[in-house]
What we know:
Strand order of the largest sheet: 2-1-3-4
CATH architecture of the largest domain: Up-down Bundle
Largest sheet: 4 strands, mixed
Bound molecules: glutathione
Amino acid sequence: MIKLYGAIASPYVARVVMYAKLKGVDLPLTEPPGGMAGIKSPEYLKLNPMGKMPTLEVDGQGIGESSIICEYLDDVYPQKSGLPADPIGRARSRLVARIVDIYLAQHVGPLFRQMNPEKRDQAAVDAAGKEIAKAYGYIEHAMDSGPFCVGKTPTLGDCALGTTTSMMHQVLAAGNFGIADPVGSGRLATWWKAVQGHAVCAAVIDEHHTAFGGFLKMMAGRK
Ligand SMILES: N[C@@H](CCC(=O)N[C@@H](CS)C(=O)NCC(=O)O)C(=O)O
C-alpha cells in the first residue's frame, strides 16, 4: 500500500505529483499521520525524521526526498519511465533536479523573509538575485536542445524545475524585488513555454500556484 503525504503548495510535493501523473500513476495526496499541520508529529517523524514533505509511505516504511520518491516510482512502475531513455539524457534530467535542490531553491526561500519593503535587507535580496540567476545559468547548461529540459517530453528535471520556477515567479512578483525574471528569454523561456503548454505539467503547476498563493497571503497576514 503506497501513500503520498504532503500539501500541493510545496514545490517538492508538486514535483512528485507531476511525475506520477506524467507516468500515469494514480497517487493522490493523503493527509499525513498526525494531521495536515503535523509533519512534526511523532507519527510523521517515524516515517520521515527530517520532518519535511513529501513523504511516501510504502507498507509502513517512509521514504523522504522528492527526487528519491520519483525514482522509486520508476522502479515500481517501470512501464513508463519519467526519465529520458539514453544515459546522457537521464544524467542531464537528474542534474537539472539536483541543481534546483542545491543551487536554486535555497536562494528563493530566504526571500520570504524579505517580503516587507520596510524591513528589507536589500543586500540579502541582491545576493539572492545573483545566486538565482547563476543557478538558472547552470540549469541551462544541463539542458539539451529541448524544448523540455531534455528532449521533446517532460521528465524529472521538468517536474523539479517547473514547480520551483512557478514558486519563484510568485515570490518575485509578491515581493516586487526588482529581480529580473531569469527565465525571461532564450532557451529557458522556450523551456518555460513548453512546460506551460503541456496539459499535465500546466494542470499541476496551476494547482500548486493557487495553493502557494494562499500560503503567501497567509504569510502576508502575519506581518
Ligand atoms: N529536499 C527535500 C525538501 C523538502 C522540503 O523542504 N519541504 C518543505 C515544504 S516546501 C518542508 O516540508 N518544510 C518544513 C520544514 O522544513 O520544517 C525534498 O526534495 O523533498
